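Example for tutorial group B:
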């Protein structure tokens, strides 16, 4: 077998069918697109991580959006959460453009890699514990395949918990479980874990998460990544 690499792992993730409920849901969504996406061919497969293979910063979300990544084939792409996230990544120097609309839109990330705890769009955006467990090995392997990685930014409490679990598995040890919070920081083995509220519409429309708040997280991630 060829050595594991980011590219080989991405290909493996895209073919995964481990979770019957998620497979059925992602394909049902693709077969019944809303009127705002007429004639679009959905990706309807699991989503691999993407970005700079020399990244010092890893941004981890919960799971792809049914009408976002599940449609476009790239995490945080084609939905409101992604609009908010990539605008911040552009302002803070991690992305060459402020939008992410499709896999061929010219987006390039510098110094950061984007991933998720669960790789298929889940019903009601709520994966089950067994589905998270089935997916977690992909995040564990991504950690090992990003040799310069120093900082893990968790978007939301679910990603925070998933990142802690993944770091524990990658180090084959028990790690502490600090409380999640916006701009919370915790040492996790060789990484620093940094928390941010998720850029969901529930948070951004209510002002719980504002552009300056997310920018502050990414600026802090850069500071930490280059201070070690």
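The residue assignment follows.
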């Amino acid at each position: 077998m060829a050595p594991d690499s980011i590219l080989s792992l991405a290909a493996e993730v895209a073919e995964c069918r481990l979770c019957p409920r998620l497979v059925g849901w992602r394909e049902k969504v693709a077969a019944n697109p809303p009127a705002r996406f007429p004639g679009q061919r959905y990706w309807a497969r699991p989503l691999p991580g993407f970005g700079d293979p020399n990244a010092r910063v890893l941004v981890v979300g919960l799971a792809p959006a049914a009408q976002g990544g599940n449609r476009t084939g790239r995490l945080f792409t084609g939905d409101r959460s992604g609009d908010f996230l990539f605008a911040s990544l552009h302002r803070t120097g991690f992305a060459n453009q402020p939008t992410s609309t499709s896999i061929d839109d010219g987006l390039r990330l510098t110094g950061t890699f984007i991933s998720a705890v669960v790789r298929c769009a889940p019903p009601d955006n709520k994966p089950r514990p067994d589905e998270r467990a089935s997916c977690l090995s992909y995040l564990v392997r991504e950690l090992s395949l990003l040799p310069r990685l120093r900082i893990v930014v968790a978007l939301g409490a679910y990603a925070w918990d998933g990142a802690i679990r993944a770091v524990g598995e990658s180090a084959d040890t028990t790690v502490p479980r600090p409380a999640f919070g916006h701009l919370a920081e915790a040492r996790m083995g060789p990484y620093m874990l940094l928390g941010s509220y998720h850029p969901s519409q529930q948070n951004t429309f209510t002002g719980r998460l504002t552009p300056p708040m997310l920018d502050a997280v990414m600026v802090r991630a850069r500071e930490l990544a280059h201070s070690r």
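Helices lie at 6-14, 20-31, 69-72, 80-91, 129-145, 157-170, 201-204, 211-225. Compare this with the pattern of hydrophobic and polar residues in the output above.
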